[in-house]
Automatic annotation (TrEMBL):
Membrane topology recorded in Swiss-Prot or TrEMBL: Multi-pass membrane protein
Location within or outside the cell: Endoplasmic reticulum membrane
Membrane-crossing residue ranges in chain numbering: 20-37, 58-79, 99-118, 123-139, 159-182
Pfam family, one: DER1
Keyword Transmembrane helix: yes
Superkingdom in the source lineage: Eukaryota
InterPro entries for this protein: DER1 (IPR007599), Rhomboid-like_sf (IPR035952)
PANTHER family for the chain: DER1-LIKE PROTEIN, DERLIN
GO cellular component terms listed in the entry, alphabetical order: endoplasmic reticulum membrane
A GO BP annotation: response to stress
Family, per entry: Belongs to the derlin family.
Protein name listed in UniProt: Derlin
Amino acid sequence: MIDQHGPEAWYMGLPRCTRTFITVLLGLTLLSFFKVLDPYKLSLNWELVLQKFQIWRLVTSFLYVGPFSLRWIFFILLFSQFSSSLENNSVFLHSPGAYLYFLFVQSISLACISAAFFWPVGYPYLADSLLFAIIYYWSKRDMWTIVSIYFFNVKAYQLPFALLFLHLVMGSSLWVDIMGMISGHLFYLVREVLPSKEDPLTREGLDSGTIQDHLNPEDEFLLAEELDWVTHNYFKCNI
């Protein structure tokens, strides 16, 4: 019988993509711990990807966060919390492959961004940047959720900036967070901001084939008057 409050229940309660990600990350960490696998083989190196065709580095660089440590535990806890919340969000909940697609897009985006920031090899391990991208997009989806950071409570939309400030105070490198923020914002911009700025009359008109259905009676009356005026003056000038 499974303990409802034990680690097995916690693990089985994770959404599918989040659980798979953590499982693979744990497996690679164990292989590295027992000296079966060299962590360098997992790191991103664009020169080796392009020249030696070591394509797996584009994937494995997101699946390793270092050896077992307190930092490793914190990463697992944060990833399980925010990745689960985002995977269970309404934007991904009803489409099984949607969250996997999100992770894929973020991986490609972060690999390219890291190449731009750390040319020519890129940033070696991008799991932390992926976590920050997840946190950023989640903060846009659940903007008003209250989140606790140590002794402070912030709203979700403030969380990425609070983490940036916290890491700055702690003396950590901000490039990892900045890359994640850029990647997460690009996804948010393309998926939600830009489509919402399209003219709904034009977009729906292309689907329905008629613009008249979108006009209210007052608009139809004004349009009819303008058409009558144009028609009257046109024929008057040509008689």
